[in-house]
Each structure stands twice: as C-alpha cells, then as structure tokens.
Write a structure and sequence with these properties.
Rossmann fold, 5-stranded parallel β-sheet, 2 domains, about 325 residues, 13 helices, 11 strands, alpha/beta
C-alpha cells in the first residue's frame, strides 16, 4: 500500500468535515464525489447561486452537502462576527458583509467557528488569495508566528529518510526566512512530519556548509535557529548547519558530522530560503520520480490548504486527506 493510501485510511477514521469553496470547478466537483465515495471525509461545497456545480444532483445523492451560502440564515451573523474580528483594522459592517460574499472568506469563517474541520482551495485562486482569508481569520497556532508551506516527498526505492519519505520546508511560501522564521518553520515541520507519518521527525537545517566548514554571515541565522529549536524542544533531534549529503547519508554524516544524532538519518529538511527549497523538491520529484504532496500549509490554528492551479481531481483528494490528519 502506497503512502497516500495509508493517509486516506487514517483520514477516514477521523470523520472530518472539509469545505471546498470552489465548487464550480469541475476538478473540485469530481474530487468531492471521490472523497465521499471513498469515505475519506464529509464534504461541504459552497454554491454562489450563479455558477453551476458540475454533476450537482449526483453529488447531492451521494451525500455531499451543497451550501447556498449567500442565502444561509446565519450569513448576517457571520458578517457581524467578521466585522468584530476586523474592525480594529478599519473594516466597516458593510465591508465585512461584502467580503463574506467571497467563498474563500466564508469558508475561512466556517473553519474559524469549528463548523468544519478544514478548508482546501486554490484550484482557481492564487496562493495569496487563498491564504489571505486564513491569515486574517483563522490566524496562527499558539507559539507560532510564521505560516509556512512544505512538500511531503515520497521517493521510490530509497534507503534514505524514513523509507524514502521526507518533508521539505519551506518550499512554497516564505521567500527569505529570517532567524525567527527558521525557528518557526523547523518546529512546525517536525510537528507536521510526526502528524502525517506517525514517525519520529529528525530535522536537518540545510546549508552548503557543515559545522563550520565555511564561514559566512548568511550561515549565522541557520546555526542560531538550530540552537534555539534545541533549547525550546530538547527532545527533538535537530542539527545544523549541515550539508544535504551529511544529513541523509550515514557514511558521509559520520565523516563530516561525527557524533550528531541527525547526520545520516534526517527526514525533515529545512532549506535556507524558498529558492533552494522549491528547486530541491522539483529536482527530487523529476529526477527521482518522487511523489510530491503539497504545498501543505503549516502554522495556522486550524488547517487551510492551498492547491496548485494546475492540480488534478486526484491531487485534491490527496490534499483533503492530509488536511484531515492536520485537523
């Protein structure tokens, strides 16, 4: 059984409710049917009353909940709640009502109010448009100030990581993380890896240098971040700065970083910036024929995940399953 099938089985056991706001997109509608058919989650589709939902009648018969959200009895109450939440930013009641007409904002309010367990969107919207409501409404988890994104990589026939399973971060959101952001990304990534795989996270703060083999001011945030995470989470295995080969290959790791409890065993790879993180995951995906699941958002109080606009219906199914495990 491959990794994502295991994720689907575990997701089904949680019986989560996930909102998909882009119901008018055929891929989203197809995914809603598949998710319901496989029993992965209960799906709520948001209908704006204007654009049709492909296969709507069949989806209703399957048990998919379709919400004509603009005409819901609770719409005005939610608009008032959004106003109270954002009035310190200058928002008026009318602006809150208008904003709630956007299905992404309405979906984020459902997540915030625990009416659903999570939201998946982005098939028809940019990352900024998808995550803006989450940042304004759902907000960050306790102890985390940085929302970041990761890819879960499943590399076939691989002796490294956890039987070829890795988490790469940040590979989708934070362009040039500073020291504080690297601390948040490392801590959130360790938590995410354990949550999704039920395996111990072993975190490598990647660099072109291993333990002082090079000297550069750009290395200082990486080294300091690793030390701060160690202090905050003394039971977490984390080390850095460390080169990729030393992080994943035991022979190289013992030669370059002897005595490290991370060298040669890392399964969570924290990249120094978005350039390297994004290039890294695409290299592994293409050259090693790895499965890449993401970008998955981490650091929010409740899960909201962004899809690629080039996603398939099956991609949406996988991200919904992962969202259930985050919930």
């Amino acid at each position: 059984m491959d990794f994502i099938e295991q994720v689907k089985i575990r997701a089904a056991q949680k019986k989560c409710v996930i909102v998909l706001p882009e119901s008018y997109d055929e891929r989203v509608a197809q995914a809603a049917g598949k998710i319901t058919e496989e029993g992965i989650a209960r799906i709520v589709l948001l209908s704006d009353g204007v654009r049709g939902i492909p296969g709507e009648e069949g989806l209703r018969q399957q048990g998919v909940e379709i919400l004509d959200y603009k005409n819901e009895d609770g719409f005005e109450d939610l608009a008032g709640e959004l106003y109270e939440l954002r009035k310190h930013k200058g928002m008026t009641r009318e602006q809150a009502r208008k904003l709630l007409m956007d299905p992404l904002y309405y979906g984020a309010m459902l997540v915030r109010d625990h009416k659903v367990d999570g939201m998946v969107a982005g098939a028809c919207h940019s990352t900024g448009d998808t995550l803006r409501p989450a940042l304004q409404i759902v907000k960050t988890a306790e102890g985390i100030r940085t929302v970041s994104a990761y890819f879960l990589m499943v590399v076939p026939d691989c002796q490294y990581g956890s039987d070829g399973v890795f988490l790469f971060a940040d590979s989708g959101l934070v362009e040039f993380p500073n020291e504080d952001q690297l601390v948040d990304i490392a801590a959130a990534s360790a938590r995410s890896f354990e949550q999704l795989t039920e395996r111990e996270p072993i975190v490598a703060m990647l660099s072109y240098s291993t333990k002082g083999s090079a000297k550069n001011k750009r290395l200082e945030p990486i080294i300091s971040a690793a030390e701060r995470v160690k202090e905050r989470y003394p039971n977490l295995k984390i080390d850095g700065e460390i080169q990729l080969d030393a992080a994943v290959d035991e022979t190289v790791g013992q030669m370059k970083c002897k005595g490290s409890n991370v060298a040669g065993n890392a399964n969570v790879l924290v990249f120094p910036d978005l350039n390297s993180g994004n290039i890294g995951y695409k290299l592994v995906q293409r050259l090693a024929k790895a499965e890449a699941y993401g970008p998955i958002t981490q650091g929010l109080r409740r899960p909201v995940n962004d899809l690629s606009r080039g996603c398939s219906a099956e991609d949406i199914v996988g991200v919904v399953a992962i969202t259930c495990l985050q919930a």
